Amino acid sequence: MSGRAVVLLSGGLDSATCLAWARAEGFACATLAIDYGQRHRVELAAARRVAAALGVTDHREVTLDLRAIGGSALTSDVAVPKGRDAAQMAEGVPVTYVPARNAVFLALALGLAETLGAADLVAGMNALDYSGYPDCRPEFVHAFEALAAVATKAGTEGTRFRVHTPLMALDKAGIIRLGLSLGVDYALTHSCYDPASDGAACGACDACLLRKKGFREAGVADPTRY
Question: What pLDDT digit, counting tens, does each position of 81-105 carry?
Answer without folding.
Answer: 999 988 888 788 889 999 999 999 9
